[in-house]
Specification:
GO terms for molecular function: DNA nuclease activity; hydrolase activity, acting on ester bonds; metal ion binding. It comes from Marinitoga hydrogenitolerans (strain DSM 16785 / JCM 12826 / AT1271). Pfam families: TatD_DNase. Helices cover 41% and strands 17% of the residues. Strands 1-2-3-4-5-6-7-8 form an eight-stranded parallel β-sheet. The protein is globular, with a radius of gyration of 17 Å. It has one domain (3-250): TIM Barrel, CATH 3.20.20.140. The chain has helices spanning 16-21, 38-50, 70-79, 102-118, 131-141, 157-165, 182-190, 220-231, 235-250; strands at residues 3-8, 28-33, 54-58, 85-94, 123-128, 148-151, 169-172, 196-198. α1 (16-21) links the parallel β1 (3-8) and β2. By secondary structure, the chain is α/β, with parallel strands linked by helices.
């Protein structure tokens, strides 16, 4: 199996260089390192520039959208011009924790959608307990021509179809391997395999059989195998399709 991870946070892992060294032996073709705030986005670009098999995104997570200034958005805009940057993200709405107000999150989301449009880049969406508002904001603000992916999708098939109809891909992470996750299994079963992306969200959301331990991109294998099992398809063929999906969306 050729493996890819379209969403990880290696910059948050102390032994990231050891993990990166293990990519070749574990058949990792490439990964996408995802930014969560301005400071971290500088790190994602730096890491990507140091490694041929790492691409990156830059962006401000909704939980980091408090007290943002034009300087913050300008920094993301400038970083977006780096040749290794393939998306703006992760951006969106998160109502699970009250780190910021909805107004602040709306402003951050809207401004970064504009950055994506101006730089002709897809977006990596972080949405938690806010799917309706995120969908409506996308409709009102206008969807980037290059669309994007709904990272770590956690709602139901009805919601997934709404985003698929807009042209978005669905990001599937470790929770697909968790026992009795019937809602997400239904999403994977109904979503065309050509619109699924495999993600680890490392160092978070570690899949079975390593749940409870620190996650890393090589565990994407278990996510891809589970997707193949649910779809009733050959895992090597699924791995190839998912790799091509990422290359198509992120223009790799």
């Amino acid at each position: 199996m050729r493996l890819i991870d379209t969403h990880c946070h290696l910059s948050l892992i102390d032994d990231k260089e050891e993990i990166i060294k293990s990519f070749e032996i574990n058949n990792i073709e490439f990964v996408i390192e995802v930014g969560i705030n301005v400071e971290n986005s500088f790190k994602t670009v730096e890491l990507a520039n140091e490694h041929e098999n790492i691409f990156c995104s830059v962006g401000i997570h909704p939980n980091d959208s408090k007290n943002l200034t034009n300087k913050d958005y300008d920094s993301i805009y400038v970083l977006a011009n780096n040749k290794k940057v393939v998306a703006i993200g992760e951006i969106g709405l998160d109502y699970y924790r009250e780190y910021t107000t909805k107004k602040e999150q709306f402003a951050s989301f809207s401004n970064q959608l504009q950055i994506a449009k101006e730089n002709e880049l897809p977006v990596i969406l972080h949405i938690r307990d806010a799917y309706d508002d995120a969908f409506n904001l996308l409709i009102n603000e206008g969807i980037p021509e290059n669309t994007g992916v709904v990272h770590c999708f956690s709602s139901n098939w009805k919601t997934a179809k709404k985003f698929l109809d807009l042209g978005f891909y669905i990001g599937i992470d470790g929770p697909i391997t968790f026992k009795n996750n019937h809602t997400l299994i239904e999403v994977v079963k109904n979503t065309p395999v050509e619109y699924i992306l495999p993600e680890t969200d490392s160092p978070f959301l570690t899949p079975v059989p390593f749940r409870g331990k620190k996650n890393n991109p090589i565990y994407v294998k278990y996510i891809i195998e589970k997707i193949a099992e649910i779809k009733g398809l050959n895992k090597d063929n699924v791995s190839e399709i998912l790799s091509n999906n990422a290359k198509k969306l992120f223009k790799l």
